[in-house]
Amino acid sequence: MVNETTRIFNSAIGASSIAAAFELGILDALQERDPLDVEAFSDRHELSVWSVGSILQVLHRFDIVGLSPDRKTATRGPEFADTFENKGYFLWLMRGYGNLLHNLATIVEEGNCTTEGIGRDGKYIAMAGRDYGAAFVDEHFTEVMNEEPFTVAADLGCGSAERLMGLARARPDFRGVGVEVNKGAVDLARRSIRQAGLEDRVQVVHFDVKNLTYQPEFEGVEVLFCFFMGHDLWPRPNCLKAFRSIRGAFPQLKRFLFSDTYRSDFPAPGQMPIFTLGFEFTHELMGQYIPSLSEWEELFDESGWVCNGRRDLSIPYSSIFDLRVGNGGADSSAT
Ligand SMILES: C[S@@+](CC[C@H](N)C(=O)[O-])C[C@H]1O[C@@H](n2cnc3c(N)ncnc32)[C@H](O)[C@@H]1O
Questions:
Q1: Whole-angstrom Cα distance, residue 87 to residue 91?
Q2: Whether residues 34 and 141 fall in one domain
């Protein structure tokens, strides 16, 4: 057995290879066909067969793929299913935060630990969210949404807008609007919406939720949802203001489905689940506070939202909260 330091070194190469294999379509190809002809795959995607073989070789060392000695044939290894399910986290870390990982010392030295300074890549964060969302969130989201009838919905911090597009595909009368501050994510979302032919029913507005006010696109919105961006609204006074402004910005709102990852307060080292360390480290470095579960519950209450139910997700320390307009707190005049 190798020691912990050696394991960490090897893991860094494994993580990079998983992210690349996902992005290059190698993992999807293996999921579709097993065994995979490495040369045919490389030709089809105009990739160097040697480079693809090198990535597969690393994955082979972690039992994610099997590889024939001549590197011509790859198969799914014992760890493949688990890696395939979790691949979005690797893209999130290695691509979304790749610049930070590469330049960590320089960024700290130059005091550049801001969202812009670390060079977080919104496009890859959105692509990764789409993947781990499909694996760990979508089923719960659909079930919670379908508990009550609706035709018009909005998504705060919509990223790739995949959730809105999913609703539009499933419901011919559905109309949806996404709100997104990152230009890279807005462009990705609008491109995907166009490619899916859904532009007459799904729109994305480039807007900062911290200054939420009524927009004509918000007319008729009955259900609002907000997944994995709530922590971006902290510090607390800013988030409180944003949560209070929702009722005025969406006057016909019936439900607000809020979902986020909350602070773990660090489990013992050997029990740290996937994602948590990366999520808490990157945000901590940027000075971005991650609220605990009880801090969220207090904020719902103070901003005038009543929590009607909570569903835990299999993303570590993450839940969907079903919020309803309560009597106090919310600022209904913020139009
Ligand atoms: C982790 S991603 C989640 C994306 C998507 N909701 C999902 O579940 O896949 C958070 C998204 O919220 C966006 N965001 C963060 N702060 C925002 C703000 N103040 N206004 C609008 N969007 C914001 C980010 O640009 C990013 O696309």
A1: 7
A2: no
